[in-house]
Amino acid sequence: MHWADFRAQRLSDRDVPQVIVSGITPSGEFHIGHLREILTAEMIHRACLDTGLDSRYVFIVDSMDPLRRVYDFLSP
Questions:
Q1: Structural domain boundaries in the chain
Q2: Centroid of chain to Cα 28
Q3: C-alpha distances in Å from residue 6, one per residue of 3, 9, 10, 69
Q4: Residue (of 37, 42, 48, 36) closest to 7 by Cα position
Q5: Tens digit of pLDDT for each residue in 40-51?
Q6: Angle of helix 3-12 relative to helix 32-51, nearest 10 degrees?
Q7: CA angle centred on 7, ends 53 and 23, rounded to 5°
């Protein structure tokens, strides 16, 4: 059993619609960690749908997060 299927099976015990929420606050360049955040939640959402659960996936990008530093490739 895939780990996402295991999680969906555990959620099915709750017998309520599932809302899977994920998000990033990108500061600077995008990196592989952003993709992991997206894919982890997406896999759980799809596993919920495969299990027959009523599931929604909400992805949030907080683009208002101030930069922690100004990178060389950004113009001042």
A1: 3-61
A2: 19
A3: 5, 5, 6, 40
A4: 48
A5: 999 999 999 999
A6: 50
A7: 85
Instruction: Give first-to-last CA distance, the chain, whole Å.
Output: 51
Dihedral sign for Cα 45, 48, 50, 56, please.
negative
Residue 27 has which token pair? 């500061």
Task: Supply 75's token pair.
Answer: 């113009």
* Tokens describing residue 18: 């599932």
3-state secondary structure of 12: helix
Alpha carbon 22 to its chain's center: 3
Per DSSP bridges, beta strands 55-61 and 18-24 are: parallel
- DSSP conformation class of 67: P
Per residue in 6-20, pLDDT tens?
999 999 999 899 999
Please answer whether residues 42 and 57 qualify as being in contact, where contact means their C-beta atoms are separated by less than 8 angstroms.
yes
